[in-house]
Amino acid sequence: MQLAYETILFLMAAAFVAGFIDAMAGGGGLITLPALLAAGVPPVAALGTNKLQASFGTATAFATFARAGHVDLRRFALPTAAAFAGSAAGAFTVQQIDATFLSAFIPLLLVAMALYFLFGPRMGEEDRHTLIGSAGLFAVAAAIGFYDGFFGPGTGSFFTTALVALVGLGLVRAVAHTKLLNLASNLAGLLAMVAGGHVLWLLGFAMAAASVAGGKAGAHAAIRFGGRAVRPLLVLMCLGLTAKLLLDPDNPARAALAGLIG
C-alpha cells in the first residue's frame, strides 16, 4: 500500500518514542500499533509490521544492555529458547481459536502489576534471592512467550515483573534480560507473520531505523538513571495499556465495568 511521506515520518517518530519507552519499561506497542492503525494500515498487516520494527528496536536495546554487562547469556540461553518456542506455539494457537476472552482478563493482570511496582518491596539494582529454579524460569519464559505470540500487549512488563518478583533480579538487570526474552518472542511472532505475508517491508524497515535509535537512547537512559526512572515508567505503561484495552468497545471487560458502575 502507498502512504504519504508525512505519514511515514509520523510513524517513524512514533517508532522512535516507542523504542525509547520500550527499552526502559516495555509497552512500546501501545504507541506504534495504534499509530499504524490510525495511518490506515490493515489490522493484520499492522501487527506484522509492528513486530518487524519492534524486533529491531528490542535487539538494539538488548545489545546496549549486553555491552554494559547487564546480561547473563549462559543462564538465560534456555529461557530464551523457551520464550521463542512459546511464542511460536502461541502464534499457531491464536489462528485456531478465538482470543477475545483474553482481552477481558489482561487488564486485571496489568493493574495488578502496576500495584506491585507501586506498593511492592523497593527494588534496587542488586539481585536478590530467587524464588524459582532453572526449571521454573524456563516455564515462566515459555508461558509469557506463548502469551506474546497469542495476544501480545504488556509482554515486556510481564517479563520484567516475573524477573524481579520471581527470579530476584535487580530492576535494571531485569529490564536487560526482558529485552533478550522479548527479542526471542518477537522474532517467533515475526516469522509467523512473514509466513502469512502480513508484513509491509519498506514501512517496517523505515520504522525499524527510528526504533533502533529510540531503543539505544532508552537503554542508555535506563542504565544511567536506574530504577528511579524505570519503576515509574513501568507503572505508567501498565496503566496506559489497561486504559487502552478498556476503551476498546469490543472488550468484554468494558461492558462488565459499565454494568458495575451503572
TrEMBL record:
Main location, first listed in the record: membrane
Keywords attached to this entry: Cell membrane, Membrane, Transmembrane, Transmembrane helix, Transport
Membrane topology: Multi-pass membrane protein
Compartment(s) where it occurs, according to its Swiss-Prot or TrEMBL record: Cell membrane
GO cellular component term of the entry, any: plasma membrane
Transmembrane region(s): 7-32, 76-94, 100-119, 131-150, 156-175, 187-209, 229-247
Pfam families linked to this entry: TauE
Alphabetical list of InterPro entries matching this protein: TM_pro_TauE-like, TSUP
Family assignment from sequence similarity: Belongs to the 4-toluene sulfonate uptake permease (TSUP) (TC 2.A.102) family.
Protein name: Probable membrane transporter protein
